[in-house]
Design a protein that fits this description.
Distance between the termini: 18 Å
Order of helices and strands: HHHHHH
Radius of gyration: 16 Å
Structural class: mainly alpha
Largest sheet: none
Strand content: under 5%
């Protein structure tokens, strides 16, 4: 399968939608997420991914939000996780909305670049996958992150927490794209 000429634009459209929500939440809450330790962000990612899996299995939501908004949450929390890995957590918010958006944009760009590389090597295999597989792979990545956090960095062959956050972001983007098609 050759590269789909729409992949880059679809990816950018999803990230723009996520960024718009992130920016609105920055307006309402500031960069309050700066106080979160990465382990708390991992748990937030876990909650979102478990809800997606639950909705996929039950086929019914009791709360009026579907799977797509949860994938968007995974993207934004994944980017926040990358920011927190880079900057560390704080006891008081130390980041302006403008600084937070610049950090967001940098990590979103890095995720796009990684997607290009992997998409080239894997020949857009994600397009032939089921959305439920993205969910399971995200849950696997979260479990790996939890294990690495528990090891406090003393891993032997791991790619690292950041690489797993990036994969979560990209799988979630693919989920949003597939659910929109």
């Amino acid at each position: 399968m050759a590269d789909n000429p729409n992949t880059e634009q679809q990816f950018k459209d999803v990230i723009q939608e996520c960024r718009s929500l992130f920016e609105k939440k920055l307006h309402d809450y500031g960069a309050s997420w700066r106080i979160l330790r990465t382990s708390s962000l991992t748990d937030q990612l876990f909650i979102k991914a478990k809800r997606i899996r639950s909705l996929e299995i039950k086929k019914e939501a009791m709360v009026d939000e579907g799977i797509r908004p949860e994938f968007i949450g995974l993207i934004n929390y994944g980017i926040v996780g990358l920011i927190q890995l880079e900057k560390g957590f704080v006891d008081e918010v130390d980041t302006t909305p403008e600084e937070a958006l610049a950090l967001y944009d940098q990590h979103a760009h890095d995720a796009l670049e990684l997607m290009f590389k992997k998409n080239h090597d894997y020949d857009e295999a994600w397009r032939g996958m089921r959305v439920t597989s993205y969910t399971d792979l995200i849950l696997t990545k979260i479990q790996r992150i939890k294990e690495m956090e528990d090891l406090q960095g003393a891993t032997l062959v791991s790619e690292g927490i950041d690489a797993n956050y990036m994969d979560i972001i990209n799988y979630a983007v693919f989920g949003v794209i597939k659910l929109s098609e």
